[in-house]
Amino acid sequence: MTYGAVLGSPYVARLLGGTLTGRLPNGMAPVAILLWATASGSSIAVGGLFSALYGLASALAQPVKGRLMDRHGQSAVHLPAALLNSALLVALPFSGTYGGPGLATALVVVGGLAAPPLEAGLRALWPSVLPDPRLRHAALALDTGTQGLLYIVGPLLVAALASAYNPAAALAVTAALGLVGTAAVALSPPSRRWRPDRSKDRGTAPVRRLATPGVTLLFVSLTGIGFAIGAMNVWSVSMAGRYEQDMLAGIIPAAFSVGSFVGGLIYGRRTWSGTTTRRLIVATAAFLGGWFPLLALPGPYAATAAVALPGAFLTIVVACAYLATDALAPSGRTTEAYAWLILSIGAGQAAGTALAGRLAEHPLASAALPAAGAAFTLTVLLAARRCLGPSGHAQRGRHRRPDAGRHKAP
Predict the structure, then answer these.
(1) Per-residue pLDDT for 164 more than 50?
(2) What is the fold of 213-395?
(3) How many CB atoms lie within 10 A of CB 278?
(4) Which tens digit of pLDDT belongs to each residue from 170-225?
(5) How far apart are CA 10 and CA 28, in angstroms?
(6) Taking Cα atoms as reference points, which of 254, 280, 233 lies closest to residue 377?
(7) What is the percentage of the chain residues whose pLDDT exceeds 70?
(8) What does the domain layout of the chain look like in residue ranges?
């Protein structure tokens, strides 16, 4: 069985488990910060601002941390980042006593900037840990499919801790999980030995410029995927208010995440025919089609079931996007490229959240926004398919043997 072989490979279970644990703060920290702020006497607006600043700082710093990993290795970036991030989250509850809102803002922003780049780092490790392309394909699907679960488990864990103890305890546990998970990854032999492959491709000098037309258009297109996710989250909140069922705000995104997880498991069990570009475009078209039932303004139960369909194709889109990034990025800069991919989706998600918030009182417009984001992605991908396809790779000397690991462990 493919997943059994993946998880049975050396270090894979540790890397996956450590990355998921270390990334739980991505789903926990924004909620814990919001709860701490409101419990400390601040308004929900101020707490929301703190939470947004943390997420924005974390996203914006991804490419910088990715480039640092490409230059200095993973452990040299992961461990200091995790230590600083955890220390600042633990210190945040004391900011009201010693420094007030100014200090709290600084701690939140710097804490977000220091969040360890585990997602990009794990994607860079797969070629050296799993040389078999089929196992690597399954690992990427498994890794991508489980991401949504972080945003279900994380907020629930914070709510439980804040209810049983207080928000400061939730921040402390968030910090501890981030540090333990990051340490499990950063101290593993594959992460400690990892260095980017700076060898020449087929005897030609590697391309040093990252912002080529293919890479740029790919990342621009992925903002539409993030836009759809952000708009869906706000639409679920508006559904909860319209039907006076508060749980819908959590149940609808949870159904979307479960669909993503199941879709990833199905996708990763076999090797698919066709080029990566073709699979990316087909999966994006299916992702777009999955949003159309929302235009009929379904009721709560139908809406919850409906969002599982686009969720099932989300993992395929993201997995193919990572494969396309690997093929297009220059040697020695793949981790930075992965980080830009993450930032592109995050930026789109912020834009979708903002616009959906302004249109929340208009049911049809709000329901149509996820499809609009997916349509944008598909349109850009279709226009850019020549840059993304095999001919575009050949022009830049980017062909590689499918079983050749991009990153070598000396």
Answers:
(1) yes
(2) Growth Hormone; Chain: A; (1.20.1250)
(3) 15
(4) 999 999 999 999 999 999 999 999 987 655 444 444 446 788 889 999 999 999 99
(5) 29
(6) 280
(7) 90
(8) 10-134+148-193, 213-395
pLDDT of residue 1: 53
What whole-number distance in Å separates Cα of residue 204 and Cα of residue 202? 6
Mean pLDDT of 54-73: 89
Residue that wins the pLDDT comparison between 9 and 98? 9
Question: CA-CA distance, 206 to 127, in Å (whole number)?
Answer: 18
Domain at 10-134+148-193, CATH from 3.40.640.10, 3.40.50.300, 1.20.1250.20, 3.40.390.10: 1.20.1250.20
What span, in angstroms and rounded, lies between the C-alpha atoms of 384 and 217? 6
Round to whole Å and give the CA distance between 8 and 2. Answer: 10
Contact between 351 and 373 (Cβ < 8 Å):
no
Whether 213-395 and 10-134+148-193 are alike in CATH topology: the answer is yes
Name the H helices within 187-270. 189-193, 213-242, 248-268
299 Ramachandran zone, left/alpha/beta (phi>0; psi -120 to 50): beta
Instruction: Give the CA distances from residue 193 to residues 10, 72, 187, in Å, rounded to whole numbers and listed in that order.
Output: 14, 11, 10
Q: Are 25 and 84 in contact (CB under 8 A)?
A: no
Residue 406, pLDDT > 50, answer: no
Work out the pLDDT band at 389, boundaries 50, 70, 90. low
